Every structure is written in structure tokens, then in C-alpha cells.
Amino acid sequence: MWLLLAFTSAALLGFYDVFKKHALKANDVVSVLTLNTLFGSLIFLPFVLLSATGHLSADSLMYVPICGWDVQKYVFLKAVIVLGSWLCGYFALKSLPLTIVGPINATRPVMVLLGAILVFGERLNLWQWVGVLCAIFGFYLLSRSGKKEGIDFRHNRWIFLAVLASALGAVSALFDKFLLAPATSGGLGINHMVVQSYFMFYQFMMMAIVLLVMRRRPSDVHFTWRWSIPLISIFLCAADFVYFYALSLPTSLIAVVSMIRRGSVVVSFFVGAVAFHEKNLRYKVVDLALVLLSMIFLYIGSK
Fold first, then answer.
1. Measured distance CA(54)–CA(65) in Å, rounded
2. How far apart are CA 115 and CA 106, in angstroms?
3. Between 8 and 220, where is the model more confident?
């Protein structure tokens, strides 16, 4: 069940990345991200209100339990981590080709596995190590493809932000498992709807403050409304809903779920190639194949 949910989340995330790229092209990043968190909050607000007023039963999959600060403090920390990842990722995606950012994001499962080793004391088997090495080599080849477009991985700040976004995303994934896993599995057992609903609310509050501060500074980048902006929120909320639900199941493995989610690069890569007419696709396909091969090895080793 949780594997099917992970693959569903991956497909939804692929289209989420495509809509992000369309919305951010020559657009104001802070405004787009603020609207993204606003629409995400509005999507879950009815479930919070219906749950609080008793119109949604506790046995419903969409029920949002009332929680105090002892739980909310963890959700707030989750919001801070995710917002940091999104800010870095949005600025990187605005300035880099989608066929570069997608494979960089696909290395996130490797970071999650390494984090699982350092934080949770997990050990990699032979299959997993082969997967890690394939991903690292694919990333190296990707850097060479980037140079053909004038992108130097060592001295490009957007590449740095893309990598930082992936690193924070890996931290968030490890934290997700801690938040959602049952107490019997070493987690806090927080309801998945509590996490998804309130971390969106907290993100919107933080982004509203950032937007107010940024509006006081002169900028040559102006905001333009695009139809893809609300679609970012819709596809993200759908992808995160099935993802959080998958992690709440006691048999789920965060390393495998995170790896499968990064399979979204397949959707974003090919749509980016067709819709945005990006360059050097022949070289990037090889890089992508290595990243996907690493996922296969990681899946076999984690099964």
C-alpha cells in the first residue's frame, strides 16, 4: 500500500515541478511562494474547521485532531525546514534549466540514506552502496552537462541553492518519519493531517512577513499572475497528502519512500524537454539514466 502511495506522490510531484518552473519564469519568487502557501492553507482550512466543529468524524481520513503546543512546536519546526528548502529551490529553479534542477533533486534519497546512517544508525548493504555511487557519478556527469550551458557547478550560486534545497529536503524527510511514525516504531505518531494542515498555515504566516519586508525594498522583478500558480498548490497538496499517509503506515521505509518520490524527475525532465525546449538533452538523458539506475539499486537494497 505505502509503495503505491509513494509512486503516486512521485507522479504528482513531477507535475508540481513543471508548474513551478512555468510560474517562476521571469517572475517574483517571494510573491509566487507566498501565494503557494496561501492556496495550500485554503485547501486544508475547511478540513480543520469541519473537524473542530464536529462535522467531520474522527474516523475520517481527512479528520484534523485538535493539538496543543506540545505537538504544534514540532510541526512549526517542520515548516521552518521546508520553507528554507522551498526558498532555496524556488530561486534555483527560476535561474536554472528544469533538466538540471530535476536530477539534482533526485539525489535527495542519497542524502536521506546517509542521514539515516548518521542519525538513526542504519547501515547500507551492497545494493545501497552501488546506488549511492551511481547517484554521485550521475551528479558529476550532470555538472559536465551544465557547463555546456555556461553553468559551472563549483561557482554558480543557483547550483549551490539547488543543492542546499535538496539537503534541507532530506532533513525534512527524516524529520517526517520521526513525526509520523507510530511510537512503537520510534516516532511521535502525530496525525498526518495535523502535520500537513498546520505546517502550511505556519509557512503562510512566515511568507506573509517576508513579503511585507521585501515590498519595502526596490526591485526590478515584478509579479505576474499565471494560471500555473494555483496548480502548484493543488499538485503539491495532493502529493504531500499521499506521502504523509504513506509514512504514517507502520511498515513504510523512509529511505524507499524518499527514493521513489524523487522519481518525479522523470516527469519533470521530459515535460521540461518538450515544454521549455531545454538544451543538451542527449547528454542529460545519460545523467538521468544513472540517477534512475541508482534508485533501482536503492530500491532493491531497501526492499
1. 10
2. 16
3. 8
pTM of the model: 0.77
Q: What percent of the chain stands above pLDDT 90?
A: 19
pLDDT(119) > 80: no
The CA distance from 211 to 44, in Å, is 22
Mean pLDDT of the 33-53 span: 92
Q: What angle is formed at CA 112 by the lines to CA 107 and CA 118, rounded to 5 degrees? A: 130
DSSP secondary structure of 123-187:
---HHHHHHHHHHHHHHHHHHHHHHTTT--TTT-HHHHHHHHHHHHHHHHHHHHHHHHS-GGGTS
Residue 276 pLDDT greater than 60, yes or no: no
Give the CA distances from residue 153 to residues 17, 139, 170, 226, in Å, rounded to whole numbers and listed in that order.
21, 10, 20, 30
CA dihedral 223, 229, 230, 234 (to 10 degrees): -150
290 closest CA partner among 144, 134, 109: 134
The pLDDT mean for the chain works out to 80
